[in-house]
Amino acid sequence: MSDMISLELDGIEKAYNKGTDKEVAVLRGASVAIKAGEAVALVAPSGTGKSTLLHIAGLLDTADAGAVRIGGEEMTGLSDRRRTGVRRRDVGFVYQFHHLLPEFTAEENIVLPQLAEGVAQSVAAGHARALMESVGVGGRADHRPAALSGGEQQRVAFCRALANRPRVLLADEPTGNLDPETSDTVFEAMMTLVRETGLAALIATHNMELAARMDRVLRLQDGRIVCD
């Protein structure tokens, strides 16, 4: 694990229906710093702001106050175009459902984000296959998502998230739709990718057993992040 901070959230605040009598404050100064190669679990009941925090960290949403820094660079105030570029290049997302494109093979799903960044087809395909081999689904490269098991689909989704070699991985209940045995397999694959690539990973989960196997466990409580 490096000492370099890859993702920093500093005093993040977010409210919905702001300025009305129905205003709901979801985040009230949430702060966390995650080092390269570190996997951090974020646990909290549903509806308490986990997804909102991940969306702000991944530049899919904006905070009312506070700062987001990726690789030490301040993200606040960037134009939409620059935010999109940073998000596409430096942030990988994985959700509870894989969201793979059904008309493309597993390999093609991992190649496509690379092509969008200008990577040559042959280079992109080689990188896709290397990622798939590293998580044990190399033999499924030519299969479309419907022909893959749930665990295989999710491992391919992790590979796609890492296709452009991001600094940060954000995962929202990535094993929540899997049985315990498959969940464990996917978790191990995820941790392999984090360690091998030096990612900073922030992973929201309800699975306390998996959370305990990460480097740190944080809780979102009353809109703030506290150590477990």
TrEMBL record:
Gene Ontology cellular component annotations, sorted alphabetically: membrane protein complex; plasma membrane
Domain of life: Bacteria
Domain called ABC transporter: residue spans: 7-226
Entry keywords, A to Z: ATP-binding, Cell inner membrane, Cell membrane, Membrane, Nucleotide-binding, Transport
Pfam families: ABC_tran (PF00005)
GO MF: ATP binding; ATP hydrolysis activity; transmembrane transporter activity
Xref: SMART domains: AAA
GO BP term, pick one: lipoprotein localization to outer membrane
InterPro entries referenced in this protein's UniProt entry, alphabetically: AAA+_ATPase (IPR003593), ABC_transporter-like_ATP-bd (IPR003439), ABC_transporter-like_CS (IPR017871), ABC_transpr_LolD-like (IPR015854), MacB-like_ATP-bd (IPR017911), P-loop_NTPase (IPR027417)
Assigned protein family: Belongs to the ABC transporter superfamily. Macrolide exporter (TC 3.A.1.122) family.
Protein name per Swiss-Prot or TrEMBL: ABC transporter ATP-binding protein
Species: Palleronia caenipelagi
